[in-house]
Amino acid sequence: MSKFKENVGELFENWNTIPNWLCFLRIALIPIFSVLFIKEHYIIAFVLMIIAAVTDLLDGKIARKYNMVSNLGKILDPIADKLSQVAIVIILIFKFWSFEGILKYLLFLFIAKELIMVIAGAVLLAKGMRPVAAEMWGKVATTVFYIFMIAIIAIGPNGALVGVWFFKALPTPVVYVMVIISVILAFVSLFGYAPGFIRQIKENKNKN
Fold first, then answer.
1. Please, what is the average pLDDT of the chain?
2. What CA–CA distance (Å, rounded) separates 117 from 113?
């Protein structure tokens, strides 16, 4: 338990940085754009969702360019990603499209993947270690996820913006391809974290 407390304490060293505040902003926007979608204020909700996605792209670049990398940021960024992605998937499943067949289960795979990541991170923290920072494939998967899922919510079958101005619905086969690509990248990123997770567990076991 002392290692856990020490590890948590170190997370908040030099935490007050612009990238971390961008992560806080992204987390704060999640319930706001979710409620706006439920209340069918689609335009404002999309703007906030896009802002959330942009903050995800900016925080890491700012942290590296201006030497603002922090222990908290390495964990906060993926947490914000996971919360955002789960919220978007839930919106897709329950609000905008009556998914049928395998596609609905593919979307649930996103939630399963994020639960695995959360459990793995909790295991590391409980053992006094820090969860692995986001890898390149994790960032690629997140970027593709935002682009594809926001597009599906907007102009997929029964999308929020279909029929508004010049927006037309995407063909269903295109939506299937977008979801499948997103799922594949999500699990590629998950497997990319596995070696680092296993290495940390082994190193911790050898120390003990």
1. 80
2. 6
